[in-house]
Design goal:
This protein has about 350 residues and is an alpha/beta fold. It folds into 2 domains: about 200 residues, Rossmann fold (3-Layer(aba) Sandwich), CATH 3.40.50; about 150 residues, no CATH class. It has 13 helices and 10 strands. The strands form 2 sheets. A 5-stranded parallel sheet has the order 3-2-1-4-5. Strands 6, 7, 8, 9 and 10 form a 5-stranded antiparallel sheet that branches. β6 and β7 form a beta hairpin. The chain is elongated. The two termini are about 40 Å apart. The mean pLDDT is about 90.
Length: about 350
């Protein structure tokens, strides 16, 4: 799927912090979809923000001057107005979305634009209004013509006068429907409407793509700790030393993860409340080195079996302690929670664990 947002959507949430934008970013990343950004939208959003900042600064400056006069202050008292910070919409988008494609307008055929203006063909209207919207629309059409296979496109704008018919429902104007020539472009009157239609808020409550490094690090740490005690530890021993009873006087155990999480798949994602998300998953750790330290007496009592059938590939006999080493792949089914406020993972619990050498 491709998603295209008109300038008015960005101008309603300059820094992409609102809930609809967060859900959109998660949805695009989690599902591997692409955001289309017309260059004219980038230019216009920057222009609108700069203009609005100047307008608001002028209003605020007059208010501050009036307050100084009412206080009897020096009319040259310093203003406390903030300076305008640099704003780069494309950088903001690329920080939050994996796949962003910019649609350029400098190669669009000017004769076609002029023809549409003369005929007042939407998005143009009478009086040649709608030039910017026409660049957006034609940028999209040019992009779609280059695609080798059809993809669904969501076109999101609050500008119903230039793009939509008079119907109460989101429906393209007949001029635009004629342009599409079989392309699957669906109109939406707001970002919230698109999110409500397409985004599962539980499934996309978090951005699994952007969070993947943190998720994998958390799972590595928790798996390593899990293998050092309880039933998982005994499972390792049974797998590596079949037929040898559990060493009740175990002197120590260690794990070292050489290669991290692979084949991570999520079986369930559910919002427990506004901030806590529950995740159930399956994954494996490709190479885990396992170390068991046993007493010399236990080793001698079981030496023949250990040497004949065990899967330990290194034995280090040192006075009263014998160190055994092996390696293999660990398969885990587990669940945990994520707190969106603190950006922390917790509550790790395994449902199943297997070890293969």
């Amino acid at each position: 799927m491709f998603v295209l947002l008109d300038s008015n959507i960005y101008c309603g949430d300059w820094f992409l912090r609102g809930a609809p934008f967060r859900y959109l970013c998660h949805f695009l990343n989690n599902e591997g979809h692409t955001l289309l950004v017309p260059r004219v939208v980038l230019d216009e959003v920057a222009n609108v923000r700069a203009r609005k900042f100047s307008e608001e600064a002028a209003v605020a400056g007059k208010a501050i001057a009036a307050l100084h006069r009412l206080n009897g202050d020096d009319t040259k008292a310093a203003s406390t107005l903030p300076a305008a910070k640099e704003y780069e919409l494309l950088s903001l988008l690329k920080e939050s979305i994996e796949s962003v494609v910019v649609l350029e307008y400098n190669t669009l055929p000017h004769d076609e634009i002029f023809r549409r203006a003369l005929k007042a063909q939407r998005p143009f209207r009478e009086g040649e209004k709608g030039y910017r919207d026409t660049l957006i629309w034609m940028s999209l059409l040019a992009f779609l013509r280059k695609q080798t296979r059809p993809e669904e496109v969501a076109f999101i704008t609050t500008n119903k006068n230039d793009f939509f018919s008079q119907s109460e429902d989101a429906e393209f104007h007949p001029d635009l429907r004629e342009d599409m020539a079989g392309a699957n472009v669906a109109p939406f009157k707001s970002l919230a409407a698109f999110v409500d239609r397409h985004v599962d808020k539980d499934l996309h409550g978090i951005d699994r793509v952007m969070l993947r490094p943190q998720i994998e690090s958390f799972l590595e740490d928790q798996t390593s700790e899990m293998l050092l005690g309880g039933e998982p530890q005994k499972l390792l021993w049974r797998n590596l030393a079949p037929g040898v009873r559990w060493p009740d006087d175990l002197r120590g155990c260690g794990t070292e993860i050489m290669e991290g999480v692979e084949d991570l798949e999520f079986d369930a994602i559910e919002a427990l409340d506004d901030d806590i998300v529950y995740l159930a998953c399956r994954y494996d750790l490709r190479i885990v080195i396992v170390t068991f330290m046993i007493s010399r007496a236990f080793f001698e009592a079981n030496r023949q079996t250990l040497e004949e059938v065990s899967k330990f590939w290194e034995t280090d006999v040192d006075n009263q302690v014998v160190t055994l080493k092996s390696s293999g792949r660990v398969y885990v089914t587990a669940s945990f929670t994520y707190d969106k406020r603190t950006a922390l993972f917790s509550g790790f619990s395994y449902a199943d664990v297997a070890f293969r050498t």
